[in-house]
Amino acid sequence: MISEHFDTRTRINMKLALDRVCRNRPVGEDHCFRRSVAENIIRCALTGRTGIGQLVDAGERAMIRTRSEREPA
After folding, report:
1. Which of 12, 30, 23, 14 is nearest to 66 (CA)?
2. Nearest-CA neighbor of 59 among 1, 4, 5, 13?
3. Which comes out higher in pLDDT, residue 25 or 50?
4. Please, which domain of life does this record's source organism belong to (predicted)?
5. Which of 3, 44, 62, 63 has its CA 20 to 30 A from that of 71?
6. Which of 6, 1, 18 is nearest to 52 (CA)?
7. How buried is 34 (Cβ within 10 angstroms: 0-12 exposed, 13-18 middle, 19+ buried)?
8. How many CB atoms lie within 10 A of CB 61?
9. DSSP for residue 51
10. pLDDT higher for 69 or 17?
11. What is the model's pLDDT at position 55?
12. Residues 40 and 61 sit within 8 Å (Cβ to Cβ)
């Protein structure tokens, strides 16, 4: 699926963004957490925002959203 929509540079930027957002996080290796971050990065790239900074920002936004969903109200 990913390779059908994105060129090599974009796929590399997406992988780097995912790794950058998840590294050094206590839940950075958790599958559900990584999936949430990756989904937000993919949505960002699908809109044409494929720069590394844009993708990292999208991943960070997912991280903040995921954290707020985990915390009790």
Report:
1. 30
2. 13
3. 50
4. Bacteria
5. 44
6. 18
7. buried
8. 15
9. S
10. 17
11. 98
12. yes
